[in-house]
Amino acid sequence: MQTRELFVSAPGKVILHGEHSVVHGKVALAVSLNLRTYLRLQSTSSGEVRINLPNIDTFLSWEITALQPLLAGCKAEQGALKELDADLLKRLREFTGISDDSTDTRSMAVLAFLYMYLAVFADSLASITLSVWSELPTGAGLGSSAAYNVCLSAALLSAKGTISSPLTPQQESARWSKEEMELINRWAFMGEKIIHGNPSGVDNAVGTWGGFLRYHAGNITPLSWVPILRILLTNTKVPRSTKVLVSGVKDKINKFPSVMKPVLESVSAVSCTCEQTLTEMAAQGPSAEHYDILEELIDINQHHLNVMGVGHSSLDTLCRVTLAKGLHSKLTGAGGGGCGITLLRPETDTSVIQSTVEELKACGFDCWETSIGAPGIQQHSSAALSHDILKILNSY
C-alpha cells in the first residue's frame, strides 16, 4: 500500500446533443455534469476488504484469505489485466452469489469493485475500506455507474502505487497526468463492461476527462477551452429501458430508411453546429447570439428525438413548462422518460429559475440548478470537501 487515506471525486454526464447517434456512427456531444460521486479509501490492518455504498444500512466485507484463492490462474501483469478476465468474473459471481442476469445496482457495484480490487492488488492483497457517496441518482441516464468506476479506478491505482497521488500539501484538489488518466479511463471502462456488458465508453471518458467530449464512430475526443453552462436538470422519474428504446429506433430506421437516415444526419449536424458554437464562445467570450443559437439547437434536437420515437409525455410537459418561462429544454440520454436539461442564460432572473423549479416539482419531477462542463476525476484533501460530504463519508 502506497497511501493511508485518499479522497477522489468524478462527475456524472449528460448528452448535450446526439442521443442515439452513438450507435449509428454519427456525431454526439457528451458533457460532464457538476453533480459528483465521492469516494474515500483508507488502508487498514483488519485483514478485510470493506465497502460502504450509498443507501445501504450495513457495510459489506470479505476476509482477504477468502478472496486470495479467486486469483488462482489469474493472468496479472504488473498488477493490471489487459483484458476483462471472464474466468475471474465467473469465480466472483459464484463467490458472491450474483447471477449472470442480475441488474441490481448494488450487486453490480460490488462485482465491479471486487474485480478491480483483485486485479489491481493481484500480487499482494491489501486491507482497505472504501466509502462511497453520490449526488447522482442511479438509473437516470446520468452516468452514475461510470462516475463510480472512475473513482474506483483512480483510488485503487493510486493506493497501489500504479499511478501517483498528485495532491501536494499545498493543494486542495489535483489531477493526474494525461498518461495516468488514460490508464484510469481504461480501468473504468473495464468496470463499465462488468456492469453494462457492451458500453460505448462515453460515460467513463466524461467522468475521467470532464468538460465536453465529441463521440464519432467509436472515437472519443475531449474538446478544450469550452465554457461552463448553467442548466436546470430535471428527472421526470419515469422509468425506461435503454435497450428497448435503442431497439425501437433501429426498427424505425429499418422500416423507413429514406425518412430516418436524414433525421440522423440532421442530429449529427446539430452536434457539429453546437460544437462550433461552443468553440466560438470559448475563443470570443459568450454572447447573446451564441445563446440564441444554442436554444434553437436544443429545440431542433428535441423535435428530432420525438420523430425518432424516444419522446414521452413527461418530457413534453418539461418542454411546455420551461418554454412558458422563456427557457428551452430537451431530453438527455435514451429518452422515454428519464432526464431532461434546460439551458439557463447568464441574464436569466433568479425568480424565473425558482418559479420554474417549483412548477416542475409540482409536476412530480425532481429538479436541480447545476452546471455542465465540470472537471473530471480529481483527488482532494479533506479540506476541499464540504462539511456535509465529509460527514457522510466519515459516518459509515
Topology:
Blueprint: E1 5-17, E2 28-43, E3 48-52, E4 60-63, H1 64-67, H2 86-96, H3 105-120, E5 128-134, H4 144-160, E6 173-174, H5 178-196, H6 202-209, E7 212-216, E8 219-223, E9 229-235, H7 242-255, H8 257-284, H9 288-307, H10 313-323, E10 328-332, E11 339-344, H11 350-362, E12 366-372, E13 378-380, H12 387-395
Parallel strand pairs: 3-5
Antiparallel strand pairs: 1-2, 1-13, 2-5, 2-7, 3-4, 6-13, 7-8, 9-11, 9-12, 10-11
Helix pairs in contact: 3-4, 3-5, 4-5, 4-6, 5-6, 7-8, 8-9
Domain GHMP kinase N-terminal: 126-206
Enzyme class: transferase
Transmembrane segments: 109-133
Structure write-up:
The structure is a single chain. The longest helix is centred in the last third of the chain and has 28 residues, at 257-284. The model has no long low-confidence stretch (mean pLDDT 91). The strands form two sheets. Strands 1, 2, 3, 4, 5, 6, 7, 8 and 13 form a nine-stranded mixed β-sheet that branches. The protein has a four-stranded antiparallel β-sheet with strand order 10-11-9-12. The chain has helices spanning 64-67, 86-96, 105-120, 144-160, 178-196, 202-209, 242-255, 257-284, 288-307, 313-323, 350-362, 387-395; strands at 5-17, 28-43, 48-52, 60-63, 128-134, 173-174, 212-216, 219-223, 229-235, 328-332, 339-344, 366-372, 378-380. 43% of the residues are buried. It starts with a strand and ends with a helix. Helix 3 runs parallel beside helix 4 (144-160), helix 3 crosses helix 5 and helix 4 (144-160) crosses helix 6. The protein is α+β, with helices and mostly antiparallel strands and 396 residues long. It has twelve helices and 13 strands.
